Automatic annotation (TrEMBL):
GO terms for molecular function: 2-C-methyl-D-erythritol 4-phosphate cytidylyltransferase activity. One of its GO terms (biological process) is isopentenyl diphosphate biosynthetic process, methylerythritol 4-phosphate pathway. This is 2-C-methyl-D-erythritol 4-phosphate cytidylyltransferase. The lineage of its organism: Bacteria, Pseudomonadati, Bacteroidota, Bacteroidia, Bacteroidales. Pathway: Isoprenoid biosynthesis; isopentenyl diphosphate biosynthesis via DXP pathway; isopentenyl diphosphate from 1-deoxy-D-xylulose 5-phosphate: step 2/6. The keyword Transferase applies. The record marks 15, 22 as: Transition state stabilizer. Belongs to the IspD/TarI cytidylyltransferase family. IspD subfamily. SUPFAM superfamilies: Nucleotide-diphospho-sugar transferases. The gene is ispD. Catalyzes the formation of 4-diphosphocytidyl-2-C-methyl-D-erythritol from CTP and 2-C-methyl-D-erythritol 4-phosphate (MEP). It comes from the Bacteria.
């Protein structure tokens, strides 16, 4: 089936202590968002890329693309007030039956194997959500007390979360609820089973200065292996 990726990039850079939105902060010489787009394009050069940006950031993004001679084909869609609204706007741009990945614009380190795990599982079973195991101990706080919980009963959720278009479009026809923190929660609310697949631990969400330093190191290591 034809593949689409909706890459949601609506950050403000507040936790980065920067006036520049976090998706535009440079990572190894180019804006972070460009690395994210390139990962999908390198995985599948035929994938249809939809970049969802706040209205007041679109002109800056186009300027950055010109400055960095960034020519990977993509469609720009105006975002909404919430992530839910932004994804819904991205879905409007898709007119055909397909497989759709929804990904955070500030996750530039998703690897090829995770993408393959997600797309192949969604194509066969309808849904795919990448996760990885928790290695730290966990405690739950409740009613002014706390207690240990079994970490093997929990996992860390990542993106891209990938779905057949017929499932995702129906899910996003719902009215927004605060519990919709990602696409998995939106789809799950319909009673649809989610298929968990193995993600990659270094697929971090870059939201703080330490995250940026970690991403710099990880990206350097990845580029060294490739070269």
């Amino acid at each position: 089936m034809k593949r689409y990726a909706i890459i949601v990039a609506g950050g403000k850079g507040e936790r980065m202590s920067s006036n520049l939105p976090k998706q535009f902060i440079q990572l190894r010489g180019i804006p972070l968002l460009m690395h994210t787009i390139k990962v999908f394009y390198d995985y599948d050069s035929l994938i249809q890329l939809i970049i969802v940006l706040p209205a007041n950031q679109i002109s800056l993004w186009k300027k950055l693309c010109n400055e960095h001679n960034f020519t990977i084909p993509h469609e720009i869609v105006q975002g909404g007030e919430t992530r839910f609204a932004s994804v819904k706007n991205g879905l409007v741009a898709i007119k055909e039956k397909c497989i759709i990945a929804v990904h955070d614009g500030v996750r530039p380190l998703v690897n090829r194997q995770t993408l393959e795990n997600c797309f192949s599982t969604a194509e066969h079973y309808g849904t795919a959500v990448p996760v990885y195991a928790i290695v730290d101990s966990l405690r739950k706080t409740e009613n002014n007390t706390n207690f240990a919980v079994e970490r093997n009963q929990y996992c860390i959720v990542q993106t891209p979360q990938v779905f057949q278009s017929s499932i995702l479009k129906i899910a996003y026809n719902q009215t927004y609820e605060e519990r919709f923190t990602d696409d998995a929660t939106v789809v799950e609310s319909l009673g649809i089973e989610l298929n968990l697949v193995e993600g990659n631990r270094d697929n971090i969400k870059v939201t703080t200065p330490p995250d940026l330093k970690i991403a710099e190191v990880l990206l350097s290591e990845r580029e060294a292996i490739i070269s």
